Amino acid sequence: MTGATSPPFVFVVDDDSSVRSSLKLLIGTVGLEVESFESTEEFLRRNLPDSPSCLVLDVRLRGISGLDFQRELAARNIRIPIIFITGHGDIPMSVRAMKGGAVEFLTKPFRDQDLLDAIRIALERDRINRHEEKELKEIQQRFDSLSLREREVTSMVVSGMLNKQIADALGTTENTVKVHRSRATEKMHAQSLADLVRMIEKLKDRRGQSL
């Protein structure tokens, strides 16, 4: 299935079978797909769907802790929003979880609605992230289609240089620069200079460096 047709998924990882059952029942009442796992290892064997999803994760598990698993997921570049639940939470745990990007840190017993609200926020966050990733991938593909000279001209254009300045820097004519600029703008599907700048800045942010 594609991301457009697949339903949102909620994954639950808790080593207490009664907790898994009750959470699966609760989350299912609002029409969401739910899968539960006894361990993090079991969860990692699951191929995640190409659709918005989130993880309801117990802090205290046998073996690796939920907080350590949060760090492992980040290291594996598995970007799934996490909602922590725990019966033994404290402020340092909560701070560490939130600094790691958790959506919520709920201490048992928590209100059913608090969990459902957190899940709604987490799924929306993942939906936005997926949309941005798709857009970024498309922009990267367009940029990769540019010739080397078109990339050079584009980089100079978005830095604020005028056509004449670019021509002088590259040792070519202003008309040639205009041709490269026009082709690059067309290939990037940019509607304006501001649109082109926005795209290039997105790519720079992703790479953490200049193009």
Secondary structure elements and their pairing?
Blueprint: E1 9-13, H1 17-28, E2 33-37, H2 40-44, E3 53-58, H3 66-75, E4 82-86, H4 91-99, E5 104-107, H5 112-144, H6 148-158, H7 163-170, H8 174-187, H9 193-207
Parallel strand pairs: 1-2, 1-3, 3-4, 4-5
Care to describe what's here?
The protein has 211 residues and is α/β, with parallel strands linked by helices. The protein folds into 2 domains: 3-134, Response regulator (Rossmann fold, 3-Layer(aba) Sandwich); 145-207, Arc Repressor Mutant, subunit A. The protein contains 9 helices and 5 strands. It has helices at residues 17-28, 40-44, 66-75, 91-99, 112-144, 148-158, 163-170, 174-187, 193-207; strands at 9-13, 33-37, 53-58, 82-86, 104-107. α6 crosses α8, α6 (148-158) packs across α9 (193-207) and α7 crosses α8. The radius of gyration is 23 Å and the shape is elongated.
**Helix residue percentage:** 55-70%
Q: Judging from the principal axes of the Cα atoms, what is the shape?
A: elongated
**How many separate structural domains?**
2
CATH superfamily annotation of the largest domain = Response regulator
Biggest sheet overview: 5 strands, parallel
Global structural class: alpha/beta
How many helices in DSSP terms? 9
Any idea of the CATH class of the largest domain?
Alpha Beta
